[in-house]
Structure formats: C-alpha cells, structure tokens
C-alpha cells in the first residue's frame, strides 16, 4: 500500500501523528536543503530533534526511521531570501509515512475550505439539489473522488419571484466569450438571455467542461435501451419545482467536468473527465441566484469514468476575496499549481484591466490609456518596460554543472565566459525542441538557466540522472527571481544613472550584448539586482532581475527615470508585434517537440562542428545532424498583399498543394505591411518566391504573399547591438590606421558609434566595430575585428584577428597590427 506523502515547502512545518512501527522517510528532493526533524512523545522530557541534510547533500538524499512508540513527528524546512547575484535557493523537502497498520479505506478526504463556508452541502451520487446564493457570494463545486460530472443551473432569483425564468444562456455565453466555455480572467462570465452576466468563473483546476450537450435525460437512456434510468433532468425538475421553474424534457446546463470536444470532422465526442479527487470550479454570483447542482448518475458510458460518485458544494461570503486562477501541472503526477501574480503585479494591474493567463502568471494584454499600437511605438522609438517574470529560472550548480548543460543544450557551453549569456535550443533525442533558453554563467561551476517551460527543470534533472552526474544540483529559483525588461533606443539612457556596480563587476555603461553585471539599483545602498543586456524586442534593451519583494520598488525607480524619456508599459499584444518583426521564435508557435531548431529559424544555436567530440555529445545531436544534412522545412518570412493579416495555422499554398503553414502573423506598423513567419518546404523558401496564404477552406480564398528574409525589421540586427552601421574593409578610413588625435575624429566622422555585440552575418572583407565613448572622460575605444565566415556555430569561436585600440583623446595611443 502506498505511503502518505507530505511535501513541505521552504518556510513550512508539517506535523504527523505516528504509531509504533510506522516508518518515516524524509527526502531532500532537489538537494542542498537543510531541514529539522523533531519527535514529540507523550512525555515532553523525551523529545528528540535532528538536523537533516546540508549545503552539499545530493538531490534525492534521504533519512529514514521507524517509530518505537506513539509520537508526533514535526518536520520544519527553513527558507531564506536569495539575492539576484546569489544561487543558494531553498527547496521542498518530502516526508512519507508508511503505516505499520494501514487504516481501512475511508471516505475520500475533501480539500480544506477556502474560507469559512456559509453553506456546506453534499450532493449524493445520482441526485440533485437546489440552493440560494446572494450577489457576490462564491460557489465552489468540488469533484469528491474525481471523474464525476456535475450539471449546474442558475436563475435570477428576483426574476423567478416575479414569475420569469431568467437563467444561463450558453449560446450567448459562447458568443461573447469567443470560446467553448468561460475561463478565469477577462472572458470569464456566463450570460442570461438578456445578455446581462449572471455568474463569473473565478477559479478552475480542471479546464475541461461542456456547454454544448444537455443534462442527461430519460430519452438518452431509453434510446440506448436503459428504460427508466435515473437522470439529471428529472432530478433538476424535482429540485426546482418549489421555485416555480417549469419542468423540462432535457435541461441545457453547464456540465462541469464533462469532457467533450470536437474532432477534425466537427463531430462532438466525449471521454472520461480530466478531474481528479478534490478538483473544483469556483464561481461568483453576479446577481441573487437560485442554483441547482447534480451528481450525474450516468453509468453506461465514460462520462463519469463508468462509476458515478458524489459532488460537494461550498458557498462563501461575498466579503471574501479569491484570486482568479487556472490550475496547471508540470507533469501528470505533479501537484496542480494555481495561476499567480508576479512581484510587479501591484503596478501593472493598476495600469491594465485586461489580464491574460501566461504560463502560470497573470500578465497585461495591453495597458489602459496606451493600447498595443502606442506601446509598440514606444518600444521602437523611445523605450518600453515589460514584466517577463513568468520565465522559469533554474540554478544549475556543482562540478558537474557544465557537463550537464553541455549534454542538454545545443550551444557549446564550455566556451561560455563568466559574465556572459548565451541563447540556446533544448532538444529531445528526436531533434524536436523542448524549449529555448538563455544560460548565464555566474562562475566556473555556477549557471543560471532561464527558459519558458517549467518542464525544463524536470528535463535537466532526468538527464543528470541518466548521465550519472552526481555532483550537480538543479534548483528552481523562479519564486525568488522576477525580471523586468526595459527595451528601446533610450533604454541605456534611462538606466544609465540608476545602475550602480561595485569594483570587480562590469560597469553598466560598458555592458555589451549578451553580457550581465551584478549591482544595485539606485546607488550603492540600493536594491540588489542583476542587469543583463538581453531582450525579446529586436531593439537595444536590458533585463533587470530582482527579488519579488523588491519588484515594486524596482518598477518605481525605472518608471520615474523613464517617464521624462517617454517610457511606456508594454503588454503581450505589443510584444507579439515586435518579436514577429524581429523574427524571434515563440514556444508553441515557431517550435514544439515536433520541430527542430533549423525549422524554427534558430539553427545558429546548433553547434554541430564545435561540439563534435564524444565528450561534447548532446541530446538530439545525431537526429539534428541528419536533419541538417537533408532539411525539409525552414522558417521564412512572408509579406502579404492587401490588408488582411495571416494567423497562426493558416495554410500556405503553391497552386493547389500546401507547401507551408503560418506560425505567427501581425500587421507591422513600422513596415506598413502584413507580415508572417511561415514554416515552409525548402523548395519554396528562396526569397522572392510567390505563394498564397489560404483562408476559409484554404482554397476558396487566397492572399498573395512573397517569401522574404527574416527578420523583417533591422535585418542586420544593428539595433540590439547598438551599432550605427556596418562598413566594409574597403571603406575603412585611412586615418584610423595612423596614431594620433586625427584618427579618433575620423572614426567619429564615419559614425563608428555604439557597440557591436556579437557576430554579424557579413562578408569576409567586412569589419565589426566596437566604439564606447565616455562623455565625461572624452574617451574612445575602437576594436576592428575580422568577421569569420561559415557556419553560425563559429559565432562562439575566438576571433583570430588582432585589434586596433585607440586610447583617451590627447594621450598616447597604442596599436596592435591586425
């Protein structure tokens, strides 16, 4: 019989009563997490305590003991604050108890109430009951044992008292929400026939329900040969008769937990519910309601998992406030996690009503008083600030950390310097992408992995186990590290006076592309932060990484510094516009586990040559080598004729045959064109190729389109590098090779300004120029580095040329020959 499981989060304490012979095992799940175990017997003088685990305990380390007498076992897990430049992160400890005398199976345990309930009702299997709810009160419908449907009806109580039935209109609801059923968030309301909202969905831990079918009824069972079968419709008729509600032959109802879906043939299918024991939906009454709920009696098909059980109801006072949330699980066996808010939510929510659930967090779609277009132009012309805290962060530590990452990602991590960031793909053995990520190197054995999918941590730990790497710890730090992106041409100006760095850390002014520094925001006594020269906009930009407790203060400092420069907030809608223009991939759109990095447009991250040694083998390498040698699809850009936008999933045709599929599309304000990213057959991928985007059925309506280079905007990526322009060697000013004051002036005259931060796709005779000017010291530093030609993986290779360095104006200059 499986034991009882008690996960204890950092800062938490759990007490369990033990009987003689009970066995307790405590597991340090992710390693390096101290814990304290206390045993309290009936005689206080015999209390015992033990410190468990420590700073070097491996992931999965455990301690076990068997109770000799009856006692109470108390497990405490300490927590601490991790500063952005640190990596020691607290994590969960698991306690399991295996009983010497397992108890007899008891009634399923309900989840604890969300608050003190006003009503606490059990709907027995195969029955229904009615109840009244006041405006603002919350209704929690709980699936007690899992896989059990519950039909829900609601009527305006005042209208019923006046003799009018005013209930839920599911057709109107689907129409106005634009979905099969409402979800927590902006489009979360159920409407009445007069289009007034009656009920709002606040929380949903399942996410799979039905608004198309009817509550089960006598005809359904009779047609299948089950005459006289108890059914929800008859149960509802009886439960609502006292309120004067007319009986129906079949009730159209919101069927919670009923798993229905439409197939590709538009056929309505159903299967076993997704709900598990204790799953629930939390509704909020928007009017005085008479409600009815059922525990569906269907036992002739999978609707209730073939075994009908009970439903439980709780009603809470309107004065209680519950955060809107959707539940997600990282893996099928993981605990459900509700949607959360980020550390910046206090500020973003004050500026935006339209919030979207994004990878487990609420983020603004667009900001009130701005809108996506204004936010977009702020990012392109001035600066914009965006909350990107939902990115998942993992601290990867230990002497095997480099080996693990080298085996898990497509980039050559061994070439990553301390203080450097690299963008990479993460692939399965098939070559399909699990995620894309950035990796920060904080030390010789210290890395920070930042991806979009919470599954990344599961993958990294599984790979460490498979490879036998015992001296590596992968610990999630998302809860202690939130990040704010400041993007746009004026981002350096806005942050220049805010970021203080100590001696030994790169100064902010000299921070180059894909580098980071550790410092304070607001002076030497300010807020601890990590600042990286990274972004997702195609513009010069930075990300500020801070502890969530400091997030509001960080926002306020950035906002105050940026407002004189036209800083605006940036929501998800505007972000989608700038990232499509910049040709940046997005998980679930440009890539998934069926798409390789070459097909996703990020083939430059795959280091097939520089990771050719057996010790540098990485997940998916063999598959990627095969795919690279014989590609079938590539990511291209499309410019569409006319004013109609392509949307994700639109087919792309050459004549009758489909040759591609749209992954993302938008209207580009700066280009004044409709553009799209498309996964295209290689035979039709050459720039200038004419194709058509299929609308409707893909054939009866077509939009002409032309294949173009990606990115659409700033194709040479000069803006994020902050390079004014590329200059071929033939145009290099002669005066730049002559020491003295003149060469600096000549360099300035040629507009060699800003910083070139990373390789450019240029010809062999081109040069890449870095120029950093400090107005206070009137200094100029110019580096002329030859650009290597060939595979993109060479971007990580050391430069073979020398460099030209011009010192402070008016002082002696030194020159190393190229």
Describe the structure.
This protein has 818 residues and is of the alpha+beta class. Helices cover 14% and strands 32% of the residues. It is built from 14 helices and 47 strands. Strands 9, 11, 13, 14, 18, 20, 21 and 22 form an eight-stranded mixed sheet that branches. The chain has a seven-stranded mixed sheet with strand order 32-33-34-35-31-25-36. A hairpin with a 6-residue loop joins strand 4 (35-41) and strand 5. Helix 6 (372-381) crosses helix 11 (572-581) and helix 7 crosses helix 8. It is globular.
Mean pLDDT across every amino acid position? 88
Number of helices: 14
Query: How many beta strands in the DSSP annotation?
Result: 47
* Proportion of residues in helical segments: 10-25%
Provide the gyration radius in Å.
31 Å
Cα separation of the termini = 73 Å
* Percent of residues in β-strands: 25-35%
Could you name the key traits of this structure?
single chain; 818 residues; alpha+beta; eight-stranded mixed sheet; seven-stranded mixed sheet; 32% strand; globular; disordered C terminus
Summarize the entry for a quick read:
With 818 residues, the chain is of the alpha+beta class. It contains 14 helices and 47 strands.
Question: Topology, please?
Answer:
Blueprint: E1 4-8, E2 13-18, E3 23-28, E4 35-41, E5 48-52, E6 61-66, E7 71-76, E8 93-98, E9 117-123, E10 128-133, E11 138-143, E12 150-156, H1 157-161, H2 170-177, E13 189-191, E14 197-204, H3 218-223, H4 232-240, E15 254-256, E16 259-262, E17 268-271, E18 280-285, E19 289-294, E20 311-316, E21 325-328, E22 337-338, H5 345-351, E23 355-358, E24 361-364, H6 372-381, E25 384-387, E26 392-397, H7 401-408, E27 421-427, E28 433-443, E29 446-451, H8 455-467, E30 473-476, E31 482-487, H9 491-496, E32 499-500, E33 516-521, E34 527-532, E35 541-546, H10 551-562, E36 568-569, H11 572-581, H12 621-629, E37 633-640, E38 651-654, E39 657-668, E40 673-681, E41 690-695, E42 701-708, H13 718-721, E43 727-728, H14 741-749, E44 766-774, E45 779-786, E46 804-805, E47 814-815
Helix pairs in contact: 6-11, 7-8
């Amino acid at each position: 019989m499986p034991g009882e499981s008690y996960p204890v989060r950092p800062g938490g304490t759990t007490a369990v009563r033990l009987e003689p012979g009970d066995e307790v095992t405590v597991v340090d799940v992710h390693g390096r997490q101290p814990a304290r175990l206390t045993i309290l017997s009936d005689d206080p003088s015999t209390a015992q305590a033990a410190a468990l685990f420590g700073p070097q305990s491996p992931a999965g380390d455990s301690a076990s003991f068997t109770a000799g007498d009856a006692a109470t076992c108390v497990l405490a897990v300490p927590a601490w604050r991790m500063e952005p430049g640190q990596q020691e992160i607290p994590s969960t400890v698991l306690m399991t108890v295996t009983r010497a005398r397992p108890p007899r199976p008891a009634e399923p345990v309900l989840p604890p109430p969300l608050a003190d309930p006003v009503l606490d009702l059990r709907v027995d299997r195969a029955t229904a009951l009615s109840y009244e709810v006041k405006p603002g009160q919350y209704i929690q419908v709980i699936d007690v044992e899992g896989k059990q449907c519950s039909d829900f009806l609601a009527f305006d109580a005042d209208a019923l008292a006046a003799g009018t039935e005013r209930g839920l209109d599911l057709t109107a609801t689907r129409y106005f929400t634009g979905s099969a059923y409402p979800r927590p968030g902006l489009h979360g309301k159920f409407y009445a026939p007069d289009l007034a909202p009656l009920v709002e969905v606040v929380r949903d831990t399942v996410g799979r329900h039905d608004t198309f079918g009817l509550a089960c009824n006598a005809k359904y069972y009779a047609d299948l040969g089950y005459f006289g079968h108890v059914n929800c419709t008859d149960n509802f008729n009886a439960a609502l008769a006292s309120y004067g509600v007319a009986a129906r032959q079949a009730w159209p109802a919101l069927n919670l937990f009923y798993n229905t879906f439409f197939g590709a043939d538009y056929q309505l299918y159903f299967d076993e519910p997704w709900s598990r024991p204790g799953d629930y939906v939390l509704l909020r009454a928007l009017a005085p309601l008479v409600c009815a709920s059922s525990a569906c009696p269907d036992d002739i098909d999978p609707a209730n998992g073939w075994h009908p059980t009970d439903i439980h109801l709780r009603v809470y006072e309107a004065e209680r406030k519950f955060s809107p949330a959707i539940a997600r699980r990282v893996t099928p066996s993981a605990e459900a996690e509700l949607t959360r808010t980020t550390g910046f939510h206090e500020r973003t929510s004050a500026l935006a009503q339209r919030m979207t659930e994004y990878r487990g967090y609420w983020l603004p779609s667009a900001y009130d008083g701005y809108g996506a277009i204004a936010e977009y132009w702020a990012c392109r012309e001035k600066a914009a600030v965006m909350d990107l805290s939902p990115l998942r962060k993992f601290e990867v530590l230990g002497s095997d950390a480099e080996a693990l990452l080298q085996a898990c990602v497509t980039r050559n991590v061994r070439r990553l310097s301390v203080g450097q960031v690299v963008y990479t793909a993460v692939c399965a053995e098939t070559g399909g992408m699990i995620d894309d990520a950035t990796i920060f190197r904080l030390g010789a054995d210290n890395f920070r992995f930042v991806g979009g999918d919470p599954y990344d941590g599961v993958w990294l730990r599984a790979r460490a186990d498979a490879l036998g790497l015992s001296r590596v710890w992968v610990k999630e730090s998302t809860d202690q590290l939130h990040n704010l992106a400041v993007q746009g041409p004026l981002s350096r100006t806005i942050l220049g006076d805010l970021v203080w760095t100590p001696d030994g850390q790169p100064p902010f002014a000299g921070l180059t592309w894909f580098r980071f520094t550790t410092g304070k925001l607001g002076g030497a006594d300010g807020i601890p932060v990590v600042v990286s020269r990274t972004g997702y906009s195609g513009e010069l930009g930075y990300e500020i990484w801070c502890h969530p407790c400091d997030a509001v203060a960080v926002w306020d400092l950035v906002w105050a510094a940026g407002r004189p420069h036209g800083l605006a907030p940036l929501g998800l809608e505007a972000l989608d516009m700038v990232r499509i223009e910049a040709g940046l991939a997005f998980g679930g759109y440009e890539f998934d586990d069926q798409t390789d990095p070459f097909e996703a447009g990020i083939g430059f991250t795959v280091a097939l040559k520089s990771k050719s040694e057996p010790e540098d083998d990485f997940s998916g390498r063999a598959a990627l080598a095969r795919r690279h040698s014989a590609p079938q699809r590539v990511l291209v850009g499309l410019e569409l004729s006319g004013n109609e936008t392509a949307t994700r999933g639109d087919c792309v045709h050459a004549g009758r045959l489909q040759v591609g599929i749209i992954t993302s599309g938008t209207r580009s304000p700066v280009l004044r064109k409709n553009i799209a990213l498309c996964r295209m057959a290689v035979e039709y991928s050459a720039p200038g190729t004419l194709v058509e985007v299929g609308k409707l059925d893909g054939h009866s309506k077509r939009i002409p389109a032309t294949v173009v280079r990606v990115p659409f905007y700033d194709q040479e990526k000069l803006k994020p590098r902050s390079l004014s322009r590329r200059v071929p060697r033939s145009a290099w000013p002669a005066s730049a090779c002559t020491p003295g004051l003149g060469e600096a002036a000549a360099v300035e005259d040629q507009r060699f300004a800003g910083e070139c931060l990373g390789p450019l796709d240029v010809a062999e005779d081109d040069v890449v120029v870095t120029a950093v000017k400090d107005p206070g010291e009137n200094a100029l530093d110019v580096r002329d580095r030859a650009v290597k030609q060939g595979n993109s993986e060479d971007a990580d290779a050391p430069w073979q040329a020398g460099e030209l360095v011009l010192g402070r104006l008016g002082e002696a200059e030194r020159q190393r020959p190229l």
